Amino acid sequence: MAGIFQRSLRLQRALRHLVPQSPLSSTVTARHSPLDLHCPFLPSTSWQFGICCRKLHTGKDGPKPSPAAAPDRLPFSRITQEDLAFFRKILPGRAVTDPDLLESSNVDWLKTVKGSSELLLRPQTTEEVSQILKYCNSRNLAVNPQGGNTGLVGGSVPVYDEIILSTGLMNNILTFDSISGILTCQAGCVLETLSLHLEERDYIMPLDLGAKGSCHIGGNVATNAGGLRLLRYGSLHGTVLGLEVVLADGRVLDCLATLRKDNTGYDLKQLFIGSEGTLGVITAVSILCPKKPKSVNVVFLGCETFEQLLKTFQLSRGMLGEILSAFEFLDSECMRLLNTHLKLHNPISDCPFYVVIETSGSDSTHDGEKLHNFLEEAMTSLLVTDGTVATEDSKIRALWSMRERVTEALTHDGFTYKYDISLPVERIYQLVTDMREHLGDRAKSVVGYGHVGDGNLHLNVTSAAKDPALLAAIEPFVYEWTAGCNGSISAEHGLGLKKRNYIYYSKPSSAVSLMGNIKAMLDPKGILNPYKTLPDDLK
Amino acid sequence: MAGIFQRSLRLQRALRHLVPQSPLSSTVTARHSPLDLHCPFLPSTSWQFGICCRKLHTGKDGPKPSPAAAPDRLPFSRITQEDLAFFRKILPGRAVTDPDLLESSNVDWLKTVKGSSELLLRPQTTEEVSQILKYCNSRNLAVNPQGGNTGLVGGSVPVYDEIILSTGLMNNILTFDSISGILTCQAGCVLETLSLHLEERDYIMPLDLGAKGSCHIGGNVATNAGGLRLLRYGSLHGTVLGLEVVLADGRVLDCLATLRKDNTGYDLKQLFIGSEGTLGVITAVSILCPKKPKSVNVVFLGCETFEQLLKTFQLSRGMLGEILSAFEFLDSECMRLLNTHLKLHNPISDCPFYVVIETSGSDSTHDGEKLHNFLEEAMTSLLVTDGTVATEDSKIRALWSMRERVTEALTHDGFTYKYDISLPVERIYQLVTDMREHLGDRAKSVVGYGHVGDGNLHLNVTSAAKDPALLAAIEPFVYEWTAGCNGSISAEHGLGLKKRNYIYYSKPSSAVSLMGNIKAMLDPKGILNPYKTLPDDLK
User: Fold this and answer.
1) What distance in Å separates residue B199's CA from the closest CA in chain A?
2) Does residue A125 form part of some domain?
3) What value does the CA radius of gyration of chain B take, rounded to a whole number of Å?
4) In this complex, is the C-beta atom of B511 within 8 Å of any C-beta atom belonging to chain A?
5) Which of B105, B133, B166 is the last residue of a domain?
6) What ipTM was estimated for this complex?
7) A463, A477, B167, B237: least CB-packed within 10 angstroms?
8) Number of helices and strands (H, E) in chain A?
9) pLDDT by residue (tens digit) across A335-366?
């Protein structure tokens, strides 16, 4: 009882601090610390798919491949000296064949997939991309489009010897209209560079990711990246206003409109958002950007049950309304890993569940008052048992890191099996509980965290080392459980190489079949990002 | 000077009224008065396309048809007694052939297009729609999908004898999740019915249209309807989470997800949003709905120049921020027509431009303060010269009607040529000015109004009667002008029958060609809504 009283006191002190409120920083808080997408390389996770691929490629008596393993190499042409001469001519000094320089482009960020491409092309213009694809299509050469190579499902690296087509040198900001907030840029612009460019002009990007220092906007669009601002600003299907895309045969599709409304025919750009480079190469993007919020607050709260956490979410939607910009959660297992592996100190008392709430608004006094009223109601209703409030940049960053560094903590816990699941919001933690019970002692840790506001759970299971028996216990259990709730087996990471064969858990065969028709229509030879997104059994 | 002082005084009185503010109504203001889509039938506008079609169909020596006229009837089958027997069997009592009952379904809302369908089918279930299309496809019978028939471009009625497939009896609300705010319903639900259903549950629909009392959600999605809330809640490409669609051959495509995030393969539903019933028949929709705002305010302001109006828009975005929910405008010519034809009284002094601003928020005190500060700044900076504020429902409705009833006023002014243009926001009024100068005395009135926040101008030109010479002076001038600014010749109305051949002003031929490929893939016999959306010259 004394403990509860003490915790309440702490929150009340925080509340007193909040109203009347000290002026908040007028800048949006930069979050440079690693997020979901970032973890240091672990030797134990290295090359699992690379090995698998090689086995499939070179031998026939290995173990039966998992659905995630790559299929045999398709009968694409192999690069000849004539091909190289062509690429060197149209891309002087930008057709890279040095194996050392190719190394990092052949390996995905998690170091779980490794290709063996011998050619990296670095075009600077749409015309060059067009020439490359026209040539590759005529020669039946496979192409792996690559942005910042920060994907988590093996979609951004070659599986065999596909030519890597990097957007790295296509990094020009083309226009920014400060009245409408519409930005147009080449596909290779790094997300963080765009964010900084906009913040100087009193705008922000409508998406924010942990990988923002590396990822390219073209890759973000190609993978329909979600991230931290989706709750507030919606998906890229709504904010992307135009795309320029080079099709497999080199045709340039100019849908780079900069208009909020345009109902002249089918909205073709939508096809390429989330198609993971399998339907075309995005070369330029126009996107609607929101005004930079003048005030940002972050609170870190503790809840006794997930039901209380959900009630807190509902309360926040009602009382914080239009200023609510993030509602994230982590469980006590995540906190244990943060403490153990990263020595991060729990800023409040121990609870089964923790919540990070961010508000972004145009008036710091109003925002502070809304937050104060919400917290008072949440405390009075006993929905939250403890909490702390941050209005200053450094403390905001510290609180965010409790959510953002969970992935990093996990990498120190052992080999990690990662799942990115969409579910009806009221079900998202049940999967963690059921998985924990299902696995029993077989797992080292089973943790859940993610974007409550979007119904998006990051479920992670660790073991001391790679463990096929554990994997067999997790899958297809996790996918069947998800399908049973009409959930999605990939909320924001995409399918790439690793999850392509699990698509039927979330999509009916009629839809998958139509996807195949669209692929065949736009890329009849299948040269664009082969072995990705679409399942192997697609006819 | 005295006049300016008096006007300032009025606005200051309004401001005093605003802060401290009286409690606002907690309901969202219903706007039942006609909007852009509504105008009484005018004899002078009747059957212009109907006549045109008949001429094309029955004679060869009439005048050269305009690009808007329908092409010759395509070689679809004609309905036989066997066909009728089949439809009567699967839709007992719901296969309508009585000409009187068919009359209203054969004519569009503006009474400018008239078809001659002899069969109206009224399915209740997806399975029935599937059976209908499977049969029609096998028999090569053309089908015109029809929702509330409120479209403005002749897309929702048959051109010749297409079978009308109405969604009118598919009007069940399937589920509403009060935690996530996700609604699923059949395609024939009337938008206003859904709005009322949600408002009882403390939510609203993310779109609002003048036609809401008649239009169906399926039609809204099929035409990618814009409307009054787009500025705040974005387009249907972002808010529609799932669709169930019956394809031309009767296959049911179940993409009726109820998840905010799902990156498992291509986002197929996007293809059908805005495809105007030419790629499939939408049978069910899931859509993300926002919480009902607790406070709504409306202000009506006058500006001396359009430049000041744009600066006022910029100021409102900065100072009203997250509570800004509409920024609409009308010019003094609109006001003259409102006065003359509808006897509506200008609530402020005469100005060249008028602005309607709406705020929607979660805290009436905060919203009132933000609005007060914004208005004070707008006055002090001399951006607005007069204005009035409404916090009560009846006055809010009165102010909204000044914007919403412009279309109605236009119908009393004579024959109306209507254009729905997207432009970079800073250019939108230049088109009105240029058109006025270009037409000189040939036009009776040239007026501009619309959605400043979306860069969407409604340009209307009236004449005493239908006037081919005037039309020739307007078109292609208006389309060329728009194309010169990379604008869209149809921001929200779509292409339908009337504008299909103007698509090249806003889309490159490579995009139009790809649209044709998609149409051929999904509807190889072209039975779905023929003569619409795609241009006649499409191969």
Assistant:
1) 14
2) yes
3) 24
4) yes
5) B166
6) 0.89
7) A477
8) 19, 16
9) 999 999 999 999 999 999 999 999 999 999 99
